[in-house]
Amino acid sequence: MAPSKGGDKQFKPMTKKKLTYFENRLLEERRRVLKELGHYDETFGSSPQGAEGDMSSYSFHMADQGTDAMEREKAFLFASQEGRFLWHIDEALRRLYKKPDTYGKCHNCGCEIAHDRLDALPHARFCIDCKQTEEDGKRE
To answer: pTM for this structure?
Structure first.
């Protein structure tokens, strides 16, 4: 395996201690996201009608209705982003559990993903150089 452009060392499987650390980081992020999604579920699950059919919680003014619609759409956007983030976390946990010797390995160049990057983004699949190359490609 060739080192990446940034001069990272070739990939060495992580120690049990590091794997446990990143497993805990992923599980911590997963709990946080699920909590956030629960908050959004409460937002979407609220009914416009109360138990007795009272709709007084909704305004009849057009500007207020527009604000309510915008707030619901914003909540949906955030919930869908959190849902995608949860999917990435679950995929990282699958990699960690199924093939722990490859967790922390760049999917593109095969080099080790820096500890600081994994600590910030425990679900990262690419080293910083490969991710930067991917982002540059999307801009063109």
So the answer is: 0.64
